[in-house]
Each structure stands twice: as C-alpha cells, then as structure tokens.
Amino acid sequence: MSQILNNLQTLAADIKRWGLELGFGQIGITDTDLSAAEPRHREWLEKGFHGAMDYMAKHGEKRTRPAELVPGTVRIISARMDYMPPEARDSEEVIQDSNLAFISRYALGRDYHKVLRNRLQKLSEKIAEAIGPFGYRVFTDSAPVLEVELAQKAGLGWRGKHTLLLSRSAGSWFFLGEIYIDLPLPVDEPSSGHCGKCTACIDICPTQAIVAPYQVDARRCISYLTIELKDSIPEQLRPLIGNRVYGCDDCQLTCPWNRFSHLTEQPDFQVRHGLDNISLVELFSWDEATFKDRMAGSAIYRIGHVQWLRNIAVGLGNARTTPEVVQALEDRRHDPSELVREHVAWALKQHEIQS
C-alpha cells in the first residue's frame, strides 16, 4: 500500500511539473465533492440570474456532481493559464476613449477553448505515457463544470466577490481548464479567501451586476449582454455599456490582487488585428466576409456578425458625436438584420438624429 501511495504522490508531482512545461501557470488536484457549492448554485438558478443561459440549468446536478457527468471520476486536475498580452494598449485608456472599441483582454488573441483543450490533452497523453491507459476527459469552459469551485478546492485560488477566481500570486487574468480522471491521486489543500472588506469590484461594475458579494446577476453583466444574449439588449442598460463591445474587464481592472498578475508568454494570446486599439467606426465597416476572415480562430467568431454589429451599434450610440460616427450609423440604418436596425436607430437617437 505504501508503495502505491508513493507512486501516486510521485505521479501528482510529475503532473504538476509537466503542466508547467506545457505553459500552465499552476496545476492543482481535488476530489469530486462539491456538495457545499450545490445549494448556492441551485439558489442562483432559482433566482433566474443565469438569464437566457439555459445550459446552466439543463444538465441538472451534473454540474455539481462530477462523477455523474463522467462516471468513474474520482479526481479533477485543475489548471490555469495566464492570458494578458504584454503588448496590448492600456485598458483604462481604451475605455476612456469613447470612439475606440473595448474588447475584453482574454479575446484579443486566439480562441482559448482550442488552446487550453490542446494543452490539457497533451498533459493527459503525458500521463498515459507514464502509467498506461487510464480514464479521463478534458474540459475547457465547454460542459457543465463548476470551474471556479474546483479550482478553489484544488488550491489555485479563491472565489472573489466578483465570482472569478483570484490568486495571491497571479491575480485573475487567467483561463481555467480541467481533466476529470479515474486515478486516486493525493489532493491539494483548498485555498482560503482574501478579499476582506474590499468592495472595489462591486463599486465599479458599470451595470451593478454584482448584486451582493460573491453573487452576480448575469442578466445585468456586460459580458452576458454582449456575448451570451442573442436578442435585443435592454434599452436601459445600453448607456451603461459604454464602448465595451465584447465582454467587460472592469471588475478585474480595479482588483488590487491583479498587481500580482502575470503577462502571458503564450504566442496564441498575443493581440491580433489591432483589436486592442481600434475604432468603433472601423469595426462597424466590416462586412460579414471581413468579420469571418479577421475573427477566424477567435472566441469572438462565436457570436457571429449580426450580434457583433449589434454590440458596436450600442458603442457608437455612446461615442462622442462626430460626422464619422453618425455616418457609420447612417450607413447601416437599413441593415438586413432587424436586430441591427433597432440598435442603430437607438444609437442615432443618442446623437439627436431622428430616425
């Protein structure tokens, strides 16, 4: 028995070392017990805070019971990978210039789903090379998985009041991914919280989506409104969105723990097509072919051209009034999409142009 335990401890240490070699910032291991998180998750759903994200509820308890999602699972390997690109223009400067488009910094490079899934698969194959075939399944924000809860239990950090994972040594500018495995590896100590009395993220949220510490009403969250919501953006929230056309980083930008964050070393997450410093007018001029070409391999590609134009129309409605801004909106006044036309009409009204 002692030999088996020693072998498992050695394997766990090897997995963490291999993970670092593959570009992950940290690897942790936890068990499958999420019983403490299950009531909180159920309450969040009952309040309707998930909005139109039906997938958050349709899998029943599988999200909080990993062994039901993947039978045979006894441990979860949790991994984080830094994504903040070193050459990106300062986020605050972009947000303050209403004629520029602000895009959440995680989406400036390649689609993280593909990058992390590939690296997690390589880590799994590395384990198989060392011990032979074993049961596993890789996840990257792609299935009913409580990533933050698992990462906290695995010792990677704690859930901040904005509900994202925070690390004392790495802030929050990172992606999370998991490998569900059937190996009884030793588990790591869970992380404790260190937000204290700080309410910076709650105070800065443009739409006040953080309705209480550790609780977000996604229906008010700009990331939800610009990415997950497929229909019309509620009119009362449009002015609050500002120039944020894909996601929102405000709660992370203000978090004091991000002074310890790391810039990414991954080429895949470097800025593409100047998206860190680009005007709303230029983005609004892209036709569908240009959108698909420029956004190929990007997480932004997933929302499609129509939703992209909807978001930019809102940004243009909140921009400084210039002839270029008004003309860009006028050029799409008769867009084929009713959704785009509606948001263009609203934007024109913000510039006191009668539609």
TrEMBL record:
<feature type="active site" description="Proton donor">
    <location>
        <position position="141"/>
    </location>
</feature>
<keyword id="KW-0408">Iron</keyword>
<feature type="binding site">
    <location>
        <position position="223"/>
    </location>
    <ligand>
        <name>cob(II)alamin</name>
    </ligand>
</feature>
<protein>
    <recommendedName>
        <fullName>Epoxyqueuosine reductase</fullName>
        <ecNumber>1.17.99.6</ecNumber>
    </recommendedName>
</protein>
<dbReference type="GO" id="GO:0005737">
    <property type="term" value="C:cytoplasm"/>
</dbReference>
<dbReference type="InterPro" id="IPR017896">
    <property type="entry name" value="4Fe4S_Fe-S-bd"/>
</dbReference>
<feature type="binding site">
    <location>
        <position position="251"/>
    </location>
    <ligand>
        <name>[4Fe-4S] cluster 2</name>
    </ligand>
</feature>
<feature type="binding site">
    <location>
        <position position="176"/>
    </location>
    <ligand>
        <name>cob(II)alamin</name>
    </ligand>
</feature>
<dbReference type="GO" id="GO:0051539">
    <property type="term" value="F:4 iron, 4 sulfur cluster binding"/>
</dbReference>
<dbReference type="InterPro" id="IPR017900">
    <property type="entry name" value="4Fe4S_Fe_S_CS"/>
</dbReference>
<dbReference type="GO" id="GO:0046872">
    <property type="term" value="F:metal ion binding"/>
</dbReference>
<feature type="binding site">
    <location>
        <position position="195"/>
    </location>
    <ligand>
        <name>[4Fe-4S] cluster 1</name>
    </ligand>
</feature>
<keyword id="KW-0479">Metal-binding</keyword>
<comment type="similarity">
    <text>Belongs to the QueG family.</text>
</comment>
<keyword id="KW-0819">tRNA processing</keyword>
<dbReference type="GO" id="GO:0052693">
    <property type="term" value="F:epoxyqueuosine reductase activity"/>
</dbReference>
<dbReference type="Pfam" id="PF08331">
    <property type="entry name" value="QueG_DUF1730"/>
</dbReference>
<dbReference type="Pfam" id="PF13484">
    <property type="entry name" value="Fer4_16"/>
</dbReference>
<keyword id="KW-0004">4Fe-4S</keyword>
<feature type="binding site">
    <location>
        <position position="248"/>
    </location>
    <ligand>
        <name>[4Fe-4S] cluster 2</name>
    </ligand>
</feature>
<dbReference type="GO" id="GO:0031419">
    <property type="term" value="F:cobalamin binding"/>
</dbReference>
<dbReference type="InterPro" id="IPR004453">
    <property type="entry name" value="QueG"/>
</dbReference>
<feature type="binding site">
    <location>
        <position position="63"/>
    </location>
    <ligand>
        <name>cob(II)alamin</name>
    </ligand>
</feature>
<feature type="binding site">
    <location>
        <position position="230"/>
    </location>
    <ligand>
        <name>tRNA</name>
    </ligand>
</feature>
<comment type="pathway">
    <text>tRNA modification; tRNA-queuosine biosynthesis.</text>
</comment>
<keyword id="KW-0671">Queuosine biosynthesis</keyword>
<keyword id="KW-0170">Cobalt</keyword>
<feature type="binding site">
    <location>
        <position position="198"/>
    </location>
    <ligand>
        <name>[4Fe-4S] cluster 1</name>
    </ligand>
</feature>
<keyword id="KW-0560">Oxidoreductase</keyword>
<keyword id="KW-0963">Cytoplasm</keyword>
<feature type="binding site">
    <location>
        <position position="201"/>
    </location>
    <ligand>
        <name>[4Fe-4S] cluster 1</name>
    </ligand>
</feature>
<keyword id="KW-0846">Cobalamin</keyword>
<keyword id="KW-0411">Iron-sulfur</keyword>
<feature type="binding site">
    <location>
        <position position="205"/>
    </location>
    <ligand>
        <name>[4Fe-4S] cluster 2</name>
    </ligand>
</feature>
<comment type="subunit">
    <text>Monomer.</text>
</comment>
<feature type="binding site">
    <location>
        <position position="221"/>
    </location>
    <ligand>
        <name>[4Fe-4S] cluster 2</name>
    </ligand>
</feature>
<feature type="domain" description="4Fe-4S ferredoxin-type">
    <location>
        <begin position="183"/>
        <end position="215"/>
    </location>
</feature>
<dbReference type="InterPro" id="IPR013542">
    <property type="entry name" value="QueG_DUF1730"/>
</dbReference>
<feature type="binding site">
    <location>
        <position position="141"/>
    </location>
    <ligand>
        <name>cob(II)alamin</name>
    </ligand>
</feature>
<comment type="function">
    <text>Catalyzes the conversion of epoxyqueuosine (oQ) to queuosine (Q), which is a hypermodified base found in the wobble positions of tRNA(Asp), tRNA(Asn), tRNA(His) and tRNA(Tyr).</text>
</comment>
<feature type="binding site">
    <location>
        <begin position="248"/>
        <end position="249"/>
    </location>
    <ligand>
        <name>cob(II)alamin</name>
    </ligand>
</feature>
<feature type="binding site">
    <location>
        <position position="165"/>
    </location>
    <ligand>
        <name>cob(II)alamin</name>
    </ligand>
</feature>
